[in-house]
């Protein structure tokens, strides 16, 4: 079983790359963004709670995110592996994920970070916001707030996974194909 954590700042291309990787490696793609949007659209209790944070450009609290993610993993007992997209975002989430996977006699195989310059990413998100309908992609101040949250809470995950020998940084700038090839070079090692 291969379990990959794919992370990077909003707009770094996680969703785009996840589509290719899930097909190539037959992984179940678990995007916290997609899970949140599904729960929000269906007005679940957790979805309504998550929406209050997302509308302000804040990250959803760990307890809410973890409950949603565990539910999705439980729905896919026959999976050959998972591609975690946008999760974990904090050390507490990483520890909760490790404990959850360990309870299923499993573990994270590798963590891959798509890295890109903030200014390039801000432009990407503002462009995406013109068609996505997502309010958090249409306001530069909210975008920059998400990056500040990322830097404060998510960046420490690099050290967490480096200490386990599971962290790999990938240049997130280039064509989709170039970035996919960079990711595949790492994942093929497992």
Automatic annotation (TrEMBL):
The EC number of this protein is 2.7.4.3
> Which InterPro entries has this protein been placed in?
Adenylat/UMP-CMP_kin, Adenylat_kinase_CS, P-loop_NTPase
Q: Where in the cell is it found?
A: Cytoplasm
One GO process term, biological-process aspect: AMP salvage
Q: Which Gene3D superfamilies match?
A: P-loop containing nucleotide triphosphate hydrolases
For this record, an example GO cellular component is: cytoplasm
Residues where ATP binds: 11-16, 128, 174
Q: If you read the UniProt record, what top EC class would you report for this enzyme, in one word?
A: transferase
UniProt keyword terms in alphabetical order: ATP-binding, Cytoplasm, Kinase, Nucleotide biosynthesis, Nucleotide-binding, Transferase
Asked if Lipoprotein is a keyword of the record, the answer is no
A Pfam family assignment: ADK
Role played: Catalyzes the reversible transfer of the terminal phosphate group between ATP and AMP. Plays an important role in cellular energy homeostasis and in adenine nucleotide metabolism.
> PANTHER family annotated for this entry?
NUCLEOTIDE KINASE (PTHR23359)
Report the HAMAP family cross-referenced here. Adenylate_kinase_Adk (MF_00235)
Q: What is this protein called?
A: Adenylate kinase
The organism named in the record is Flavobacterium terrigena
